[in-house]
Amino acid sequence: MSGESWDIVIIGYGPVGAALANLLGAGGVRTLVIEREATAYHLPRAVHFDDEVMRIFQSMGLAEAILPITHVSPGMRFVDAGGRLLLDWSRPSGVGPQGWNVSYRFHQPELEAVLRGGLERWPSVTVRQRADVFALEPGADAVGLRYEDLTNGRIERASARYVVGCDGARSLVRRWIGEPMEDLGFHERWLVLDALLRRPRPDLGDHSVQHCDPARSATYVRGTGNRRRWEIALRPEDDSAALVRPEGAWPLLSRWITPEDATIERSAIYTFHSTVARRWREGRLILAGDSAHQTPPFLGQGMCAGIRDAANLAWKLARVLSGEAEDALLDSYGTERAPHVEGYIREAVRIGGLINTKAMEAVVSSDVLQGGGAQRLVPVRPALGPGPSAGWAGPAGRLLSQPRLSDGTPLDDRVGLRFAAVMRPGFAAALPNEMLDHLSARGAVLVADAAPGVGAMLDEAGAEAVLLRPDRHVLGAARDAAEMRALADAL
């Protein structure tokens, strides 16, 4: 192979590719990002992320830059054709257990600008735009790539120890792996309309609203600033070409807004899919984001899932590249992420079924609901699939709360993108110094803090100590000194 050699090549520079590059850059991993387009897409696409994703942004040092461009969402409501409240999925207004609000709205071009700007901190990361990868040559020790420099037509070569495809639903990397997606059964055409309000319309509300109308289901989303979105289900007889034009779209919007209220910034027809890759990795080729999974938007988890992919994958790649772990650790990326993302997708499909149901009694009797009167939707946070563990594996793979330490510092700000051994102070004091020294020498940050939040987090785990991975999930826990030694030995 000829051309430049890299540790990682990321194909695709959307939010997932940019997030992965930030996480790898923070660890000094030599990374090349290759992107076909010259600039980020200028119109809105994803509009929601949750507290777990904000915690990932925090870990890469960008949460404070992202927070001012967000709007905290109060949650979602389901109404029938007459506007009667059927289901209430309101979210708490304050900061939640992860240390952030539960739900945020954002404008994707603004988020991408922050993520891309964040890469300027990392000299180990290089970005090449207007470059189109067209061939991959997997080998025993590296993957060769050929790509066209679209500014001059020149064919360039590069090689990498691993290639990560963050290149979307039509992923070249997935085609090279050659495995079809698993179809989870949801395929529907919806018209997506993004509008800019000309004048205040507080009556539209801050909640997202799912209109469970048998005649035509629709979703309303309050964006940042004066941005509002409607997603409207299409019928088989609808003329798609006509509906994406303003004169076709406005009649569908007329029950909420008129041209006097807003301008249409974007209209597009999407077929919402529900698919998961059967294989997330083949040798040195790896998938992340939409190349590995696609979900209907009803839970707002599409981009969130891709950012979680990046967080799960980054620390494993860094550990394998540094020689601290065997290549087999990368197999756990797919075994952990696939069941987790499938759980979210199946829930989104079920919510889509509730929105589209023709029988309202099916909505209010669904087993995802609880309570009386206007029913409440039970939040879902699927568990990771099987992955690495050590010590007592009871809470392994769980995402615990993020406590504040005694000095007020959030745990993740103290730890950074490293392992953390979080212990009750009395338990830590009784451990041999050599064990604590071993943990520190292997890169774990030792946290033995009497803050109430730390105790509550360890109560969640049912343990005296936990070893947190760089993605904040539990590698393992300890209830006694023997289990703590097993945790230390795992590093």
From TrEMBL:
<dbReference type="InterPro" id="IPR002938">
    <property type="entry name" value="FAD-bd"/>
</dbReference>
<dbReference type="InterPro" id="IPR036188">
    <property type="entry name" value="FAD/NAD-bd_sf"/>
</dbReference>
<dbReference type="InterPro" id="IPR050631">
    <property type="entry name" value="PheA/TfdB_FAD_monoxygenase"/>
</dbReference>
<protein>
    <submittedName>
        <fullName>Bifunctional 3-(3-hydroxy-phenyl)propionate/3-hydroxycinnamic acid hydroxylase</fullName>
    </submittedName>
</protein>
<feature type="domain" description="FAD-binding">
    <location>
        <begin position="7"/>
        <end position="347"/>
    </location>
</feature>
<dbReference type="Pfam" id="PF01494">
    <property type="entry name" value="FAD_binding_3"/>
</dbReference>
<keyword id="KW-0560">Oxidoreductase</keyword>
